[in-house]
Fold each of these.
Amino acid sequence: MGSRMGSIFHNDLRISNCLIDRFENHTGEVCGLEWRSDGLQLASGGNDNVVNIWDSRLTSNAIHTKTAHSAAVKALAWCPTQLSLLASGGGSACKKIHFWNTNTGNRVNTIDTESQVSSLTWGYSNGIGKEIVSTHGFPHNEVSVYSYPTLQKTGVIMNAHEGRILNSQLSPNGTVLATLGSDENLKFWKLFDEPPMEKDTTPSRIEKVIR
C-alpha cells in the first residue's frame, strides 16, 4: 500500500508480522500501484508526477524512475501478453498515456488523450488484436479505446458519466468494463472479445504412456 508521505509498504497478510518490505522513492503521495502478473516488478505512480519501477528482488532502489508526466500518475496497467510493457496515464495537467519497456526503462510510445487519465486497462478485439482502454475525467468524462501498437483510436464513449470517471475494472473474461463515476453511478460496457486461448502443447499423461 502507498502512503501520503510517499512510502510504499509491502505486506504479507498471511503472517503476523506482515510488513516484509518498504519502498522509498516518491516525494509526494502514492496514488497508483500495480504489480506485474508474475510478481517480479511493481509500478508506482505519485502526486510527484513520477512513475517508479521496482524489482521485488532488489527493493533498496527503484530500477527505473520516469519523469515524463506533468501531473499526478494514478493510472497504471501492465500488458498481460507482453510482461515488460507498462502503460501509465497522467492527470489533468498532463493528459498523456506513456508506454514503457520496463526491461530497458525506455519510453516506446505516447498518446495525447486531451483529457485527464483516471484508469487504464488492456483488452483484445477480434480483427484488431491488442487494445488499451482509457477512462477520463475533465473535460470529456469519456471512455476511449486504442489499438496497440498503432495507437489508432478504435472507439469512444463520449460523456460516459455526468462527472469524471474515477476508476474502472475489466470483467474476469476480459469483455465487459465496469466504470465508477463521481456522479455515483456504476456502469457496465461491453467492449472486447474474449482473447484466444493459448493451446497447451504439454503432452498429457495418456500421451506419455502411449509413447
Amino acid sequence: MATEIWSFRFEVAADAFVAAEAGSHVDVELPSGLIRQYSLVHVPHGSIYQIAVLREEGGRGGSRELCDQVGVGDTLGISAPRNNFALESGKARYLLIAGGIGLTPLFAMAETLHERQADFELHICATSPANVAFLPEIEVAPWVQRVHLHYSAGDPPSPLDIRALLCASHSDTQIYVCGPKRMLAAVDEATRGWPPGRVRTEHFAATATVAGDDENGCFEVLAARSGKRFTVEAGVSLLDALLANDIAVESSCREGTCGSCVTPVIAGELVHRDSCLYEDERVTGKTMAVCVSRAKPGTDLVLDI
C-alpha cells in the first residue's frame, strides 16, 4: 500500500466483535506471543478490523514478525478496541496533523468528520508520495479537498511549517496530532501555554523519561476496595507490585502507551511517566498508568481498586 507499510484486515468472530469509534486501537497478539498496539484505520463495520503497520527493521520486532510471517488465513488474538484518542463532538472546526504511519487514526477521524459534515483539514507529512499510506483511497475520498500533502523530499520540498499552521489556527479549533517524536516535540513547543485539551496527541511508542533517584524510591500503597496495604520497592513497577499482591489489573504494553492499566486514584502525589494520559488528565491526579508511573518516594498512594 506504500513503502514498507502493510495493511491487515482481521475478520472477527461475530460473537466477539465490538464496535469502535475513530481513534481506537486494538492489541494484536503475534504468533511469538508478542503483543503490539495498532490503531484502526476505519470505524469498523460488519466484523472487520483493519490496521496498517510500518515495517521497521530497527524496531522491537513486532512489525517485522507481523509483516514477514503472518499471512492470509492465519488466526491471531485481538483485544476489544480501546480509545485513548477519542474524537470530540461539537467543535467549530478540526485540524488533523499526521506524520508517516500516524495517519492511521486520523484517516478514521477524517471519515467520521466528513460523515458529520464537520469543518476540518487533514495535513499529511511524508518523505514522498510513495510513503503515504492509503494515498489511492485518499485521492478518491469525498473529502480529498480537505487534504494537504507535505513532502520533505519533494521536488521542490514542501515540508510542513507546524508552528505557522498551529499559530494560524482559530482558538475554537480542536487539534489532533499523531506522528513521530520529532513532530510531537515541535507541536509541544509551538503550543506551550495553550489551554489544556485543545491539542490531543498520540504517540507511536513510549515517551522516554529520565527520572532522578529522588523519584525512584519506595512508597506505600493502599488498594481501597480490597483493603490491602503494601510497599512498592525501588526498581519495582507499581503494576508488578499490584499483581504480586493478587490485585487484578488489566495490562498490555507495560510501557505506558496503550492505556489498559490506567487506574483511578483516590489520593497520592504522582510521578507520571506514561504517554497515554493527556496533560489535563494528569494534573487532576485522579488516574495513573500503573505500569510505568509511581508515587513520590516516602508518600502514601491510595488506589480505587
